[in-house]
Amino acid sequence: MYEFVSGPLVWISFIVFIGGSLYRLCSMHKLAKKEKVIYPYMSLKYGLRSIIHWVIPFASTNMRRRPLMTVTTFAFHICLVLTPIFLLSHNILWYQSWKISWWTLPEGTADIMTVIVILAAFFFLARRLVLPEVRFVTFASDYALLIIALAPFLTGFLAYHQWLPYKTILILHILSGELMLIVIPFTRLSHMLYFVFTRAYMGSEFGAVRNSKDW
Amino acid sequence: MAEPAKEIVVDPGLDETIKKLTPKKIEDTINKVLTKGAAARLKVYMQTCVHCGLCSEACHFYLSHDKDPRFSPVGKVKQTLWEIVKRKGRVDGEFIKNCSRIAHTECNVCRRCSMYCPFGIDMAYLLLLVRRICALLGVVPQYLQDTVNSHAVTMNQMWVKQDEWIDTLQWQEEDAQDEVKNARIPLDKEGAEIMYSVIGPEPKFLAQLLGNISIIMTVAGMDWTMPSFDGWDNSNMPMYSGDFETMARVERKHFEAAFKLKVKKIVMGECGHAFRGAVYDGPKWLAWKEPPVPLIHAVQFYYELIRDGKIKIARKFEQPVTIQEPCNIIRGRGLGDMLRYIMRATCEDFRDVSPRYEHNYCCCAGGGVINCGPPWKKNRVEGNRVKAEQLKATGAEVVITPCHNCHSGIEDIVNYYKLGMHVKFFSEILVDVMEIPEELKV
Ligand code: SF4
Ligand code: SF4
Fold first, then answer.
1. Distance from CA of A147 to the nearest CA of B (A)
2. In angstroms, what separates the C-alpha of A159 from chain B's closest C-alpha?
3. Cis peptide before B283 (omega within 30 of 0)
4. For residues B381 and A105, what is the distance between their CA atoms, to the nearest angstrom?
5. Model-level pTM?
6. What is the SS3 assignment for B322-371?
7. What pLDDT does residue A87 have?
8. ipTM of the predicted structure?
């Protein structure tokens, strides 16, 4: 079992993740070309201006209005992306299979970052349950996606601290990580792929056509 | 939350039209709209929206209804478009009626929400798609549909006939001559610098505004003209009902009038939606990147006249004034500074609003909502309590609204919430305070 999930399944999930993402982006590009009015309106300058304003914490009005959400969401996304890439044990695995390795996070830091992801996920869950405007637009799939994103971190944390049967948790950890990679291109987790494009489009419309700011 | 939003509104445009729908017609129409033309943005927006609700507080309907989630931008899209997509278009007439109620009467497509969504998802665009589906199915609030029919038949919004149009202009020209010597409204002057265009309701209900522009143009010494033929009306209700074919005919006609008169530019009266149609929605549907004739809004025109000293201010307006910033020229065109410039130049005591500029609240009349007529009026004024509070907080006695929709919408709010304010167009202030040169004095 371990051999399978840490061998072929890793390959499969990376191929699906990368292939799927490329496929989604290509089909978006094809559809956007058909819609004729999208590309001519795109502006590099205003697109970038908008993206920059929305990747800096508190640079937009709405972010300033909701400080707790802003801090949480930035912490969550930063840790979610960086931790798996720069984790020492992941690097060792990559070195073993492909002889590549890079800078790694100190273990204590990585541990804190994992906890941040977990806590933030619970914050998002609470928001969905408590805030009427969020609950009203929440589907079962929103909970599912949150669990999918949380699982690799929760299991990773347990595995690192070896609080539960190590082997089982490790397998669950790998499986949940693979699941997340696989579903990114095909679910709303693909906001990760689309963010720059939706932002750039709106930024271009606001900047170039409407002469105003979108933050 | 299945109960209807508010008391039931009777509107034959929705109640009667849905009786003629068949499940097949609904499904076919929906699939046509969602797969042709709209596919890219719709798909990406649907996939990207993480249902976070962060856009909610952008919407005045949501804020005015004590944060009822059914009125949040994403809440409105959830009740309409998401459901349509989920059910692959297999929805019934009642559902479509509900869609029209939400998309036509509970959203002003003011786009404030796209500044609050972290992804810049254009919820107004999605709700316009819902309107498009409703319009193709013939389910549109009756009063709104009537203006669309008028556009389709007469190329203006108010069934104004050509002789009435010309008559009104001549009458206003005479009135203007009581104020200023040689005031004119030159008709069909080929090669003039400026074509001035207005919306249908001006000759119908607010003719004195035509007299005002005659006074202003004469004093400023402008080389201008107005068409005596179709194309004089720059308003565009089909843009809001979802009848984009008619919208495109109207926009084309407007620009054709300018071509025919060989003018250098178009100056549009104080109207926001008309400006949006000419600058953005119209050209976009016609696949033009830019309007084919340069075109500016009245606010910019007045700004240039005052800045360049073509109009001088004799004495400033004294009462405390504030502004209603029309979404379509502020968030839609960035004229916020010019508006403040002309306000300060003409008024002693200008009280700014908060929130302001791009973040200003919509008047709740725009986006075709006021054109849905009396049955929906209560819904509209109740949907903008925050605007009443915003205006009240300024302590002003007069509100300047450089937009027709704003004007009527704010008047309703002022009455309903008993704000005791007067609502004016900027041109009314301008003719009041400007200097009339000796040689033009009557
Ligand atoms: S009224 Fe304005 S803020 Fe509210 S949903 Fe419509 S476009 Fe968005
Ligand atoms: S439109 Fe944007 S802000 Fe609103 S729920 Fe979707 S992702 Fe969140």
1. 14
2. 30
3. no
4. 57
5. 0.94
6. EECCCCCCCCCCCCHHHHHHHHHHHECCECCCCCCHHHCCCCCCCCCCHH
7. 95
8. 0.94
